[in-house]
Automatic annotation (TrEMBL):
Pfam families: 7tm_7. The keyword Manganese does not apply. The keyword Membrane applies. One of its GO terms (biological process) is chemosensory behavior. This is Gustatory receptor. It is found in: Cell membrane. PANTHER family: GUSTATORY RECEPTOR 8A-RELATED (PTHR21143:SF104), INVERTEBRATE GUSTATORY RECEPTOR (PTHR21143). It comes from Asbolus verrucosus. GO terms for cellular component: axon; dendrite; neuronal cell body; plasma membrane. Belongs to the insect chemoreceptor superfamily. Gustatory receptor (GR) family.
Amino acid sequence: MDLNIIKLIFKFGKFLALTPSSIEPATLSCFEKCYIFLTFSIYTVGVIVTLISRKIFYDQLTIIRLFLRLLLDIDLYFFNCYIALAPMLTKKRQWFKLFKYLPKIDASHLIFLVNVVFSFYVWLTKLNWNFFKLYLLEYFQMYSQFFYLVLGCIILQMLLSRYRHQTLLLRQQIQVGRIRLPSEFPRVLRKVQFNILMLKEVADIFCDIFGWVILFIIFFTTLKYLGYLDNVVKGENSHVPTDIGLRISISISQNATLVLFSIGILSFVLLCDEILKEFEAILELSYKVNVSLTEGLTGRESDEIQNFIDVVSHNHPQFTAARFFNIDRTTIFSILNSLTTFLLIIIQFNLNI
């Protein structure tokens, strides 16, 4: 993974106002600002028209289904508002710093688009051309979320590879140091120390940009699952056709979307957790450096090692979803716990009707 992939994604994303026009530090031109606000205005009008067109369908929904559907629409709208305005107008500097620091430290889209094409075919069969009026914008909104999910995973993979490189450097120093203390050891130690500081800043910038993004995506996917579970519990859906083949196609289309987002979130969370584990390995190796290589060192060299340990221990990366909760392996359990709780509520509500 290198910055060439990111640059390619940015070239595509700028046309849909999903990303800044580049990762260079240039300020936004008047044309770029007008393009962003024009895209945002068209998008807002499109959402209003879509909601009005769906009113006849919303009137047929149960209270729970209507509540979940409205929350889903709100989540998608505010997500696209955020990515259209915040990262490009107020966080462009963070984007630049994010990709400025990464180089100093030594097929998913295709699957989603195939699913979109298949979904278009299925829903066009059921709704004819009304599908475009009712759901075309929603598929763009979902693609925006998936776009950022993939981009986030790519950046996390780059970050993880750089943390692993620091681990490798420390292991090499420990192995060599047991035979003889290399003259380059202080230089390597300072290099790793500098890299740890830069990586911590990169992690903080990443959270600043992607914190709200992952929060909206987790909320969206959870709502999708709740809507699916509500259909399963009720065992009926007035909008599903009687044709068996079409019903199977619709089910595959809906489930494929859930699976893709679930895999994306799982990858995002596990990459964050893997980075945290890699940092713990670096911290453990730092203490081993102190134990293995301090014999025969001067007081100044011992102080350098102790300072190195202090810097590492005080620059622990932390990933959060807009500071609402930390992102690590426990996030998966929390999501499953929330789904289970709401499933019980849905079952109880349906039993009382």
